[in-house]
Structure formats: C-alpha cells, structure tokens
Amino acid sequence: MVLIFSRSGRAKVHGLKSTPLNEYVKHILASPYLYRSFTKLTEMATVKEQLIEHVMKDEASVPRSKVTVVGVGAVGMACAISILTKELTDELALVDVIEDKLKGEMMDLQHGGLFLRTPKIVADKDYSCTANSKLVVVTAGARQQEGESRLNLVQRNVNIFKFIIPNIVKYSPNCIILVVSNPVDILTYVAWKLSGFPRNRVIGSGCNLDSARFRYLMGEKLNLHPSSCHGWVIGEHGDSSVPVWSGVNVAGVSLKNLNPDMGTDKDKENWKEVHKQVVESAYEVIKLKGYTSWAIGMSVADLVETILKNLRKVHPVSTMVQGMHGVKDEVFLSVPCVLSSSGLSDVVKMTLKSDEEEQLRKSADTLWGIQKELKL
Amino acid sequence: MATVQEKLITPIAGGASEGPRNKVTVVGIGQVGMACAISILLRELPDELALVDVVEDRLKGEMMDLQHGSLFLKTPKIVADTDYTVTAGSRIVIVTAGVRQQEGESRLNLVQRNVNIFKHIIPQIVTHSPNCILVVVSNPVDIMTYVTWKLSGLPKHRVIGSGCNLDSARFRYLMAEKLSVHPTSFHGWILGEHGDSSVPVWSGANVAGVNLQTLNPDIGTDQDKEGWKETHKMVVDSAYEVIKLKGYTNWAIGMSVADLTESLTKNLSRIHPVSTMVKGMYGINEDVYLSLPCVLNNSGVSSVINMTLNAEEVAKLKKSADTLWGIQKDLKDL
C-alpha cells in the first residue's frame, strides 16, 4: 500500500484491494486529521512554541484605560504623543478619514513601542477600533486660518460632528467625550446634543489652555514657575475669555490686593496686557508656524490624566452653565470644574465681580446667538 | 510705587543665577527636530532647551507653542534664535537639520547637500558649547556623524550618531509582536549602517536569556521555514513605508533620541546601538562611523561592547564601511 499526500494534506491510497473493509481504511487514511498528527510528529515546533508555554485559558481582554483620539492632524497627534509619553493609557486608538496618513501615524507611534508603556496602538477609519474607550478626545474638524476667528468654523465642524459623535457613542456608550475642536464651547454643546450623554460626560477643553498660557506669562513677569502662579481665565475659549483678577495669587497672596488697579486701564504695570496676550496667543502662533499643537496637546494630556487617574483636580473646562452667573440659555462656558473618572462631577462657584459676570453673560449671549441657528 | 513683584517677593540669594546644568539644544525644527524636542521636554530631561533654525517665523512660533505648555513641564527656560549664541552652554546638541528623503529616495542621496549645511552649523555649535556632546540625527547618519566629527574637532567619544538605535527599537517591536511580549523583553541588536545594509545580529536575539538561534539554527537565513529574516527586512523598509503613508517619520525617531539623551544627561551607562568611530575594529581601516553597542554616560561614548559576530556579519560591516568610505573620501573641504 502506498500513501500519497497531496498539498492539501489529504492522502490518496494506492495498491489496496477494493473490499468494504479496505474502503473504510481508505476513508480513514484520507482524513486531514491524520495528516496533521503525522506532520506534528516529524515537523519542528516553531521558535515561539519552543520558547513559550501558554498556561492560561484565553479570554478576550478588555482595556481598562483606553483613550481614542479622533483626528490625526497636528493637534490630535500632539495629544497622542503627550498621552503616550505620560503613560496614561493601556490602549490608544486613532481615527480619521484619510487612510494613508492614519496608517502612517499609527506605524510611527508603534515603532516607538520600546520606549512606551502603552502595549496596544490601533488605528482605523472604521470606529469599531475605538470600542471600549474610557475617554474619547475629539480634535477633528477645520481649523482657523490666519486671522480667522474660531466662531467662523462652526457650521463646517457641526457637519463633521454629525458623523463622528454617533459613531463614538455606538462603540463606547459609557465613555467621556473631551471636545477640543473649535469653537470648543459651541462644539461641546453640539457633542452633548448629538450624543445624548449626561452633562458630566461631555467636557470641552475650554479655557484649560488659556489659563495655562496666563500662568506662564504671569510666571515670566514674576520670575516664578507657572505652577506657583495661580490665575483663572474662564468663560469663552476665545476672544471674550474672562481673567478673574480677584483670584490671581502667589502662595495665597492676592496680587489685586497689592495692586488694586490690576486688570484695569489705569494699571501702571499693565497687567491687562497679560490677558490680551493670552487671547492673541493662538493667532500669533498660527501666524508664525501655521497652527498650534504642542501646548494644546500638553493641556489635553493634563485633563486626560486627571480623569483617568480619578484625581479630582480642578480645571477650567467648558461645561453647561445654564443657571449659573445669571446665564439663562443652554450654553457651555469654562468655569472651574472638579474632574474625576466619572467626568465632570462638580463645579466650583466662583465669586465674580459684577463686570466679570456681565462679561460671562455677554459670551453666553454670543454663543447662544450662533447655537440657536444650528441645524442638529 | 513698588511693583507687585517688589511687594510680593523679598530676594534672598544675591547675584545672577547659575547657568543651566543640563541644557539641550535641538538644531533644526522640522518634524524630526520638534518630535525630539517634545519627547525630551515630556521626559523632563533638560533644565533649558534651545532651538535653532534658519526659518525665523516658524522658529519663533514653535518656541512660543512649547513655552505655552510650561505649566505642564519641568523645563523653566525655552529659548530659540537663528543666532547660535542662544545655544551657549549646552551639554547635549542634537542635530536634525538638513534635507530629508523623498518618497523612494535612499538616505545616501542626501549627502553633499547636508554636508554643505553642516559646514555652517557645526563650527558655530562648538564655538558656543565647546564641552558639549553632539548627537547627529540627520541622514545619512553614519556619514553625517563622520562629517560632524571632522568639522567639530571634538574627540570621537563626544560625537555620536543616532545610528541603529531606531532600527533596533523597530526590530525589538516587530519581533516582540510576533512573540506576544513587550519590546523591552525581547533583546536583539541591529548594527552597522543605519539604512538598507544594517546587520541583524541573530546570534544575540533572546528572550529571558533563551537564545532564539539555538531554538532555530536557521533563523535569519533563507532556509528558515519561519521566515524570521522578513522581520529585519520590515525594519529596513519601515522608514520608506511610513514616508509613503504620511510623508515623513518623526515620532519614533524623536522617542529614540530622547532615550539616548536620557542616558547621556543622567550618566546612566546604558548600552545603545549608536554610530561611533569604528576604525581599528573588525578589520576596518578607514575613518568610518557605524553602529555598535556603546555604553553612554555623561562623557559620551565611554566604551564599546566587543560583539561576537560571525564571519558573515563581520563581512557585512566591512562592506558597509567600504561603501561609506567610498562616499566620504569624495567629500569636499572637511
């Protein structure tokens, strides 16, 4: 009897007389299982099989602190690299519409795997790769051209969000959405409406960056590290943000007490200029290098850290402020918020001067004026 | 009327503050330079960062963008200028300036253009930071490190090429994926030329000290049924692939340079496969730079590990050395 094994692994038998018993034997010999056991005895185990013995029952592992970044432009990638380098997540997913760039960015980050503590980095145009995210950072959308105001970007970005937000919700129904795209206060409102999420799970990066810039400039003026200079910029992330001068302090010493003219036009030291520089920062950097990325990326990673690590730090971020400071409409503005793993759980009630409250209400009116025209 | 600052603060230590102790300069603020900068800043390595380039607007914009993130960093001073005086007192200078590969273009094609750029850059760096360690990233890195060494007049242990640090990182990532372990748990070295003719040292590849070549003697050869050689090929093709997809590479090289910077600034004496002067080793008689496992600390390359390479691997190194010298000897005015 001769057994001839074909490429598919089935054996053909030759030289066996045709009897019922022999037909049965032929049937057995033709089984693919026979080939597999046969080759296992003679074939070399792979390097992996020789090296590693698998000792547990395989179960699908679900990430515990997965972050998705939507949009792999300069801002999205700056957020990604800051989040990765700060070792905040066990899985990072990237989504965008441009497939080549998306794959290239994913590969470039993966190639740095030796230097990171994020074992899984995935990317796809299809939102299924974002499933089970704890936090989704939305940076997608059009960005300001030189001289263009953030409010000008609205309708274009609303249309993009109509595609993005439902997809995020579909695959991560329990996530926290962190909106970065501009105009951030309006788009956070849009994301909140489109997602149907409770308001603690939709946060706008808001004035986190403005306050960081304020504290940096304040530090430069006083020759101190920004983390020792305390100052809050609230309200609209944009031209009409509000610097709360009464709260500006170093080691609890109120600077406004030392200089009562601070923040006014009478101030000889012209501290008002510091806030003006904050407002103009983005325009300036855009004029010089075409866009901003690093600072916003780092400020987003700061928020991601507080949320994923459940730190309950207070950050100036954009939330629904209807009913606060005399605001009557459903608008999102930045106020100091307590952030945790549930998202935005509490708001710190600032004591504002009447002119500061007036500025907030004015921002709220401007934003509502635009929001009520939006087709959602 | 006293200023807010005067009312708030009573100075104690008189006199000017000391200069920086761990200043890092990045020359070239393209994608690679900025990726190096952000990785180095996020790892909190320098107490001062300087950026230099020729494009003034973009340089100022990048500097401001980084400064605006100061609240989140531990680097109190970030400066930038087209004038090299801003780089004075640097401990480490990372050179990323120069032209980069277009799609499909080999690194060796960039040589003469980058030599001309370096003739302008290197002497100025050395004037303002005569005690620095130079880390060359610009491609073709092995040749540009040689050029830098020649132009700087610095001793060879203070001129390092980023070399195969990235190739080895990619190799470890790809191999580890195949074995389902973290890259740090797979050990493997790629040496020689950073580029198409790099040498994977299969004899050293191991996990937990278990040598893979002992498990599979065909590993890395054409006879290997498991096709492990393909992994090295993927490493060589990596850069071309990413360039084809996104136009350039930056994040991985930025992270790998920050890794080198960490060993140098923190005096760690870790071993990295970086480009160093290999004349006198492995039968190489010319002044060429190739990647070998180097011990890096705050003096630069303090020593080199004597790899046990087989005859074929030594031959490949020698061949790379010959190719590189073939190009180097024609370079003008070094």
TrEMBL record, chain A:
It is found in: Cytoplasm. Keywords: Cytoplasm, NAD, Oxidoreductase. Residues 66-204 form the Lactate/malate dehydrogenase N-terminal domain. Pathway: Fermentation; pyruvate fermentation to lactate; (S)-lactate from pyruvate: step 1/1. The keyword GTP-binding does not apply. InterPro entries: L-lactate/malate_DH, L-lactate_DH, L-lactate_DH_AS, Lactate/malate_DH_C, Lactate/malate_DH_N, Lactate_DH/Glyco_Ohase_4_C, NAD(P)-bd_dom_sf. Its EC number is 1.1.1.27. Residues 208-368 form the Lactate/malate dehydrogenase C-terminal domain. It catalyses: (S)-lactate + NAD(+) = pyruvate + NADH + H(+). It is an enzyme of class 1 (oxidoreductase). Gene3D superfamilies: Lactate dehydrogenase/glycoside hydrolase, family 4, C-terminal (3.90.110.10), NAD(P)-binding Rossmann-like Domain (3.40.50.720). The keyword Cytoplasm applies. Homotetramer. PANTHER family: L-2-HYDROXYCARBOXYLATE DEHYDROGENASE (NAD(P)(+)) (PTHR43128), L-LACTATE DEHYDROGENASE A CHAIN (PTHR43128:SF10). Belongs to the LDH/MDH superfamily. LDH family. This is L-lactate dehydrogenase.
UniProtKB/TrEMBL annotation, chain B:
Residues 165-325 form the Lactate/malate dehydrogenase C-terminal domain. It comes from the Eukaryota. InterPro entries: L-lactate/malate_DH, L-lactate_DH, L-lactate_DH_AS, Lactate/malate_DH_C, Lactate/malate_DH_N, Lactate_DH/Glyco_Ohase_4_C, NAD(P)-bd_dom_sf. The keyword Protein biosynthesis does not apply. Residues 23-161 form the Lactate/malate dehydrogenase N-terminal domain. It is found in: Cytoplasm. It is an enzyme of class 1 (oxidoreductase). It catalyses: (S)-lactate + NAD(+) = pyruvate + NADH + H(+). SUPFAM superfamilies: LDH C-terminal domain-like, NAD(P)-binding Rossmann-fold domains. This is L-lactate dehydrogenase. It comes from Huso huso.
